[in-house]
Specification:
The complex is a heterodimer of chains A (about 250) and B (about 350). Chain A is about 5% helix and about 55% strand. By secondary structure, chain A is mainly beta. In chain A, strands 2, 3, 4, 5, 6, 7, 8, 9, 10, 11, 12 and 13 form a 12-stranded antiparallel β-sheet that branches. Chain B has 11 helices and 13 strands. In chain B, the strands form 3 sheets. In chain B, strands 4-5-6-7-10-11-13 form a 7-stranded mixed β-sheet, sandwiched between helices. Classes of the chains: A mainly beta (about 250), B alpha/beta (about 350). Strand 1 of chain A pairs antiparallel with strand 1 of chain B, so a sheet runs across the interface.
């Protein structure tokens, strides 16, 4: 395996750093889980729901050597089946297996910006595992959540426009993304935080609005070349859902 | 309250998610040119991120980094002509196995401006036959045409910089008929869409258009002579041959670099041979003549014309330079996704000239 080589720092360049990863996440997460576990009063109530909504994904990377190209965030949709298990009055754990799109666009910044975009739609199966803290306010329940997630890149789709070299006209393309076993890292994992506002209906049902933030810590590419620049998905989703809590 | 405490805890988790940075690769032009470390880094990175053949090329570019970074570093500052010559030697070694037949390196520095690194030329040196000169097409072959045909020669149609000097290409066009019922057309470089109305070229060009618009009685077919054609403007495919078809024909596929990773490409996208507005199906046999100096756009034209029913390619295998196209960022494969850049076009009847 090749070890990525960072460019020499002594060189004067106009590289602007781009926010990337979140370093002591493991320590903080472990501390949080231990702290929460110490306060558990077992309640043991399961809940099951369905939620769907929109997401926006950005590809975190850096391309100063492509001055006329930029990566832009794109919108997609997501759907999941959340599962919950309450551990105490305030604490619960949850999982949300589902489908999520992590799309982005490559576009130019010059006068061809509107003519030569490339849209990349990536479909993932994803499993977030989270700890949740609840705070009831009358018929509402405010939930803060955090944890980790793992995902698998199941398919991709690429569409865009190029210039037809032999005719001088613009030519569209639209097709399946061909995975490369050398290039593509299809497994993904990272951390997630989010929040919910639940409106408690009758008979154990709750309607809720859910915001989630997913930061992948795994490059979407395998390490296959020197001076490889990482690409990490960062996704925010906003969904609505219906949850049913089973009686104990 | 316990709830507020936990919310605070999660807030802390979010806030402590401290950041580090993804370092990008600087553009080659941002490196200074004062020592060979910078020269090497600019060259290696530029190739690493931009060379369009990494999906096909077997050169281990990472290994080149490990070997030649030290060698360039040992050269020190850019001063003596001896170190400059050594550096060009290293560049020649690094690139000698690259399969891109359009690839070459020239140098601005006056000490080494006469040096050119051209892996394909060095690989083919002494193997391929010389280019057929003007005398062959004008004097020898021209006399075989009815009424000696019509020919024109346009100078300075475009240029390339080779061996530190800009060389201007010229364009030779020969048009005529054989036996009154076979059209003959030769061109040695494509740039007709820019030069067609020049005083030098317009005569054979207009004659060619006239023969296509009003074919001779009893027309048997056409010979398109692309021997010793060094390529040129891609849009000439439609301009020169677009009269022969009435609907677009997919004759290959292109794909472009879509990122800085070596394997970042767009999907393969159909490459179309598109008709001119006045295009109509030619409907007669076409013979395309090729030789070992049928290069680049001449090879694309051969592949496109091969798509027409009744077209035969006769001659020698072509040079093998069908990509990259347009700013060195596009690959080209034929309809079967075969890369003739590597394999050359093999005629149905092989007749070395």
């Amino acid at each position: 395996m090749q070890v990525p080589i960072r460019p020499r720092t002594s060189l004067k360049t106009n590289v602007r750093p781009v926010p990337k990863l979140y370093y002591p996440y493991r320590l903080v997460l472990m501390f949080g889980i231990l702290y929460a576990a110490a306060s558990i009063k077992a309640r043991g109530q399961f809940s099951l729901g369905l939620e769907a909504g929109a997401d926006q994904n950005s590809l975190l990377t850096s391309i100063p050597n492509r001055p006329q190209v930029q990566y832009k965030s794109q919108n997609g949709y997501c759907i999941s089946v959340p599962l919950g298990y309450s551990l105490s009055k305030y604490i619960s754990v949850a999982a949300g297996p589902g489908f999520i799109q992590k799309d982005y666009m490559i576009s130019r910044t010059d006068n061809l910006a509107s003519s030569l975009p490339q849209c990349v739609r990536n479909d993932y199966l994803q499993l977030p595992l989270m700890a949740q803290i609840g705070y009831p306010v009358k018929k509402f329940l405010l939930l803060a959540e955090g944890g980790g997630f793992a995902g698998y890149w199941i398919s991709g789709h690429v569409s865009g426009t190029i210039i037809n070299m032999f005719g001088g006209n613009f030519q569209g393309y639209n097709g399946r993304y061909e995975f490369s076993s050398t290039r593509d890292q299809r497994l993904e994992a990272g951390w997630t935080v989010g929040g919910q506002v639940r409106y408690l209906l009758r008979q154990g049902y709750a309607l809720y609005l859910h915001y989630s933030f997913f930061q992948s810590l795994i490059d979407t590419q395998k390490s296959y070349m020197l001076e490889q620049v990482g690409r990490y998905n960062r996704t925010e989703s906003l969904t609505i859902g219906l949850m049913y809590s089973f009686k104990k | 309250m316990a709830g507020k405490k936990y919310i605070f805890l999660f807030g802390l988790l979010f806030a402590l998610a401290c950041k580090k940075n993804i370092d990008g690769i600087p553009p080659p032009s941002s490196y200074g040119g004062t020592d060979f470390n910078q020269v090497f880094q600019a060259f290696w990175s530029g190739m690493n991120n931009n060379y369009v053949w990494w999906s096909e090329d077997s050169v281990n570019w990472d290994a080149k980094y490990n070997v030649y970074k030290k060698k360039f570093a040992a050269l020190g500052g850019i001063s003596a002509s001896t170190t400059l010559a050594a550096a060009t030697g290293y560049l020649r070694e690094m690139t000698s196995g690259l399969i891109d037949s359009h690839y070459f390196i020239s140098f601005d520095n006056p000490f080494i401006s006469s040096i050119e690194v051209n892996p394909a030329v060095e690989r083919k040196n002494g193997i391929i036959r010389p280019v057929l000169g003007d005398y062959y097409f004008i004097d020898n072959l021209g006399h075989m045409l009815d009424n000696n045909g019509q020919w024109g020669r346009q100078r300075y149609i475009d240029s390339t910089t080779i061996k530190g000097r800009t060389q201007f290409h010229y364009q030779l066009m020969v048009t005529g008929t054989i036996g009154g019922n076979i059209i003959y057309f030769h061109i040695n470089r494509f740039n007709v869409s820019r030069t067609f109305d020049s005083m030098y070229i317009q005569s054979p060009w207009k004659y060619f258009q006239q023969l296509l618009d009003t074919p001779p009685a009893g027309l048997k077919g056409m010979i398109v002579d692309l021997r010793s054609n060094s390529g040129g403007l891609l849009s000439d495919l439609q301009f020169v041959f677009g009269k022969l078809i009435s609907a677009p024909i997919v004759f290959g596929y292109t794909r472009q670099k879509s990122g800085i990773g070596r394997l970042d490409y767009t999907p393969w996208i159909p490459a179309e041979f598109t008709p001119r507005a006045d295009g109509k199906t030619f409907g007669k046999p076409i013979v395309v003549l090729t030789d070992q100096n049928t290069v680049s756009m001449a090879e694309h034209s051969t592949m496109a014309l091969k798509m027409l029913p009744g077209t035969y390619v006769i001659g020698d295998t072509t040079y093998g330079a069908t990509g990259p196209l347009s700013s060195d960022s596009t690959l080209f494969n034929d309809r079967n996704l075969q890369n003739f850049h590597l394999m050359n076009i093999c005629p149905i009847i092989r007749t070395p000239w």
